[in-house]
Batch of 3 targets.
Target 1
Amino acid sequence: MNYFVGAIYYVLGRNILAAQSICAVVGAATAPMVYVCAKKVFNNIRVAKFSAIAIALFPSFIIWSSQLMKDGLIIFLLVLAMTMVLQLQEKFGYAAIIVLVLSMFGIMSLRFYIFYMVVAAVVGSFDRYGDYDALHCGRSVVLVIIGVGLTYFGVIRTATVDLDRFGNLEAVQRSRGDLARSAKSGFGAESDVSTTDGAITALPVGLTYLMLAPFPWQMANLRQAITLPEVLIWWMLIPLSLYGLWYTVKNKLRTAFPILIFTITLTLAYSIFQGNVGTAYRQRTQIQVFLFMFIAVGWVLMKEKRENVQLERRRRRELFEASLKGRVGQQLSGGRN
């Protein structure tokens, strides 16, 4: 992030508004990118439109993408990377590989641990076939090219160094403990995630705070109270996300596999790592950007069911009216005779 800001200042001068404006432009570009990504996964215009509009209008995405912060850039790069993975699943292309490598390089530069989750999603999406046919070999070639590209940029070496320094539960515990104790909005300060058993024990509480916080009874000032309408709307949308997730796993698992892998791993990681309500609320957007696609699926399924019910009722009414007119016609003809 420092290099990003430094490059902007070098070109445009030391002007924080210029840097914020670029972040805002990238954040605004996330909405059409979400449209493209959702369209590739579900091949449904309604789902794609709902996903893009939700991302464009949901307050937390507007807040974090309009400031000079990493979150807006990370969200855009995540959606871009997943879109390129989907594109490569459909058709091999050097342009898509280059964009994917650059987006992964950007993700590693901003948050190295997310890079590994993206790698898991990419590898999982391309290496899920037992038969070594031409398609499988082509996807293996894609993985090799991506690996060579990341190695050329020094991404793998840098990420490995960061993983050696921070990629253990003891380091996670130190960071989590600091988050839990450094602000009034901390939670789970008594939890110890330095062991596997401790991490599993802390997972349910962390997951609850990650997906539902901030809770209304925790809002102690006006700034926190402003988030209440958004939180309540988010709570109401969760059943739709579960409905859409169930449909996706049942019918679109092959296509949506990289998004599902990434969303699940990042959710579990943040559930263990996070110890502060404010940070959890901010970084939840990195998960919500894909959950809104599942919410869109749930909304479209419910709307289509409602439309089908209305069509069925209209058809029955028309049949009843037609049969009624037929009976009346028969009675009138019988009376004339």
Target 2
Amino acid sequence: MKPFIFKLCLFCITFFIVEKVFYIFLQISPSLEVDKRLEKLIDGEINKDLIILGSSRGARNIIASQLDSALGISSYNLSYLGSDITFHEFILETYIKFNNPPKIVVLVIDEPEAFQQNESLKFRFDRLYPLAKYRYINQELIERNDKNWMANYLILSRINRSNFNLHKRKFSVLDTITADGSMTLSFQRNQEIFKYVDTIDEYSKNFEVKDKLKT
């Protein structure tokens, strides 16, 4: 019995020592990201008078620096492509927790999908994974049931498969983030014909998701 207990203890000690080595991947991940906005939020580096929240409509359609010139205040765009209303709320809560509260918050609604189930709009867990070294982010992942309670103690439970990707991320033509956080397109399709649509679809509450209504 004693040899078994000794081997078990030795295994546990070895496991805990070896698995801590994987913490290096958590440390490296943030430096490989090209979108630094969420990390800047956690580090309290934004502190603007006006912030913009939304998905692609907020990212593409609003240039924060233009609001600076027009209103004479400091602005920053915190819109994320493909994000839903629950993610927008998370970004706002994170901003307020680590930065000075903004004077104005502009929320760009995805009409009519904002409070409905939509595969193209979701909580952007992929933006949290690279920052799992932060206790705040780790707790958020646990509370949203993306990670279990063991992530508080084990690096292997805390780490994500994407953390093992050690390639430096790069901007593409479609997702370049400017200094003000906006992601406006720098080109237009040749010979594009835009058609004005004046029809209004009737909105139905039957498709609303309760969790999104709570935000």
Target 3
Amino acid sequence: MQINGLPVVDAKKKVKITISSRDVTKGKTKDPAACAAAVACLREVKNCTQARVHIGRTYLKIGKRWVRFHTPQSLRGEIVAFDRGANFEPGDYVLTPMQPSHRATGKAQGGNAKKKKGKNRPYHITVGVRHFGANR
């Protein structure tokens, strides 16, 4: 996987960020590169030159590569509220490495499981928030 021609690697360690009220004031809604969390990452993470905070993943450009983190549920809730026009509550958040089952290995995930017959479970899509994916 690449973002703007640079490789994406999975994080090895957790990163704690503190989002301040000043970050919230500077942040822009529906913009993963300029939201309050991205502003806080740029300020607090050493050698971070760009940040993209999405609903499920956070990408930090450190050096000549993008480091991929899992966006925690607590931060996800604040992002959804912020993008929909509510307040973003300042606080401490921990970006964690991806679980092994969610890491990008370059191979297809899963097996040749047979499809279940019957009704599919409804799929929920959160609307009114930033786009999904790193390349948008």
